Amino acid sequence: MEAKKDEKEVGGWLEDNLPSWELRADQLYGRFDTANWRVTLMAANAIGFLAEAAYHHPRIILNYRSVEIYLTTHDAGGVTQKDFDLALKIEETVRWPLTEGDTPGTRPKDWLRS
To answer: Which family does the record claim for this protein (predicted)?
Structure first.
């Protein structure tokens, strides 16, 4: 079983790697505001695929224009490296191909509303 990370480790890791995510009740929390319901469903399906490939089962909340994700390793009772790895892959996939310097609203298909 993977070791649970303490709150300080998680906070430092998020600050360095995923500043748009946060720690909520021993879970990594991420939110993606989407353009519409179709994009919400596409993002949820992509996240589900990544989670299944990682043998992970996040809590995913779908709203008309957003997807919320909670990641925790239940066996460890909190956040582990497994959660960090999946959060990075989700962020990379859902926000792709937005690159540094791009401004939301300037691409032909503006999937996310960040």
So the answer is: Belongs to the pterin-4-alpha-carbinolamine dehydratase family.
